[in-house]
From TrEMBL:
GO terms for molecular function: G-protein alpha-subunit binding; guanyl-nucleotide exchange factor activity. Interacts with some GDP-bound G alpha proteins. Does not interact with G-alpha proteins when they are in complex with subunits beta and gamma. Chaperone that specifically binds and folds nascent G alpha proteins prior to G protein heterotrimer formation. Also acts as a guanine nucleotide exchange factor (GEF) for G alpha proteins by stimulating exchange of bound GDP for free GTP. It is found in: Cytoplasm, Cell cortex. GO terms for cellular component: cell cortex; plasma membrane. Pfam families: Ric8. Residues 173-190, 618-632, 682-693 have a biased composition (Acidic residues). One of its GO terms (biological process) is G protein-coupled receptor signaling pathway. This is Synembryn. Belongs to the synembryn family. Residues 170-196, 579-632, 656-693 are annotated as: Disordered. Keywords: Chaperone, Cytoplasm, Guanine-nucleotide releasing factor. Residues 599-608 have a biased composition (Basic and acidic residues).
Amino acid sequence: MNVDIEGIIQCIKQGDENGVQIRLQEFNKEYAQCFFFDTEERERRRQRRLEEFRKNKVRDYTDSDSDLDEYDLEDRGLILRQNLGVVLVRFIRTEVKCHLLRVCLRTLRILSRDQKVLGPLVTDSALLTLAKLAGLTTSDISDEVSDPDSDFYDNIIASLTETKVLQGHTNEDEAEAETNDQNDEPPAFDEDAKSDISITNSGDLDSISWFGSHRTSINELHRGGTHHRVLERGRRDRRESKMDVEEEVEELESGEEAKRKEAMKVLCNVVYNSAWAQERFSALRLMCGLIERVSSSVSWSNPSSAQFYELRFMFLMTALRPELSTQLKQEGGVSILTAALESCLEVQWKDQYECVLVPQAQPISLETSQRVTEILKILFNITHSTHKQDPSEDDAALYRHLVAILRLCLMRKCLLSEDTDELQGHTVNLLSALPLQCLDVLLTVPLEPDSEKCEGVNMDCVHTLLMFMERRLEAGDKIKEKLTPILNLLTESCRAHRETRHYIRKYILPPLRDVSQRPEEGTTVKSRLIRLMTHLDTDLKHCAADLIFVLCKENVSRFVKYTGYGNAAGLLATRGLLGGQGPRTSDTQYSSDSDSDTEEYRQVKDRVNPVTGRVEAEQPDPMEGMTEEEKEEEAKRLIMLFNKLSRDNIIQPMGVDEEGKLVPMSGLKENPLSEEARSESENDGETEEGDKD
């Protein structure tokens, strides 16, 4: 790490803001894409140890990161980053020019990716400072020094100088060890060294170097795995990447807006990485300011570029802190976010619960689609528990209003197909969380000449959901996460709406014609769903089976006909239906219309194997040529073999009880194997008595 932190501090002391800005900009440019600060240092140490292993034939070398904690203390780059965080958190509380403030915040954002540097950023004063810069609070930071004294910076410089000396001694020792071909490990800082580096003459936590002894307990708290996660490089935020690369675009933003955006980015990183920061944000009651910010931005004709990060931050807090999710819902979060969603999509109303859908409308822009996605995620966080609830009249009207807008989210397209898929995915998640009786809005839209329809009902939305499910089935990645919501939504919709069930059944379960293949073979939607019925994941296989079972009107014989008994056994066993049609497992009332078979199916119906669900090739009779007595003896021999396996606990014979559930055969009232066992035991006893006589 080549950043000249001593130079930055000297510039701050001398009031040379231009010098501070130049040095921080160099740091930001070098580390803008950096998510792992210690990679080069780790690799250097690993290579050195590997060379020692080869030279000295040491066999206990392990190429792992298990000893990284030992090396953290001797990493001067880490110490520099920690102290840079301390200095900048203190510096941004002073009267800093807007452009320099934005540069400082960008540096803090880069530092906040590293869990080892979060210490200075998770104090109450730091969180309140960032919240004020982000526009979440207007209160001044109490008990803080607005103009840090020179001793603060002098002590920081002194500690860094001492660290540099210690590091120099370490490097000299390493060089000497390598010269003499010795296998000694480089010395690490001990607890005394840490105390020497620390600054102990200030009561302000942020005035102490984060390596100090005064930080030990809090530092240990934040180093724990339960409190921190490393912000790993994942899917790149294309909106943020675009703004970071094209800095000239940022120059066009107002200073206040750019400042809020950078502060929100820092807060997002900090709360994502630190459970302590999440707890303090909740305790400081900063959620009220965030709700007010989002609520006030709804009426703006041109949304602020910081709005996306405000929404992202709200999503993180409602996902990570359940009490904040409850608070947002109680303070009218559903109506606020519904209004924000309506504003983003520029919704025009045709009727009370019908939005105007223009087929020739421009695709949703990247920025808009990302804001909409964040809103949908927040709404899911605060409504996921309402699915099974009976809403009040006012809540039902609010949810129907929201569902009408969600229909627009399903039907509209984005500039990129992957954005469309993501938008539809989050829309499906939210629809599956809302009360089922409020989803009728999706079907009440009047028919158009080119509409998909079933029995006079508009099925455009249902068709879109089917296409979405089919794409997810074909993709095959993250299958449980991506398929479970849409399968549950379609299943519940089929139970609630007869027309929806008829339409989906025609698409997924058309009348059987060709039964030469197993039901799970092929590339149709039906075959893909049936394959999922034997998936290793229990939740996923039950979701797929439930959908097909409902499409079969929860009729066991019809279900087995379309899937084969082998594929259907899992769901039938779970619901106690192995013995055939039992009591209905849901309150849904289905019509009594019969399942009409095609002529092709009738011709081969008697030859279909009910277990595999297909017509099997004719096999020779294994008992051909055997007399009735021989067949009976063979049957008895098989029963005795099964009984022996059961007695030796190699297998456990199971049977179906009166409730249609699998139970051990020993628990059944009539157990042929038990009777055979008793008979066999009696025969053995008679034989033994005969031998005695």
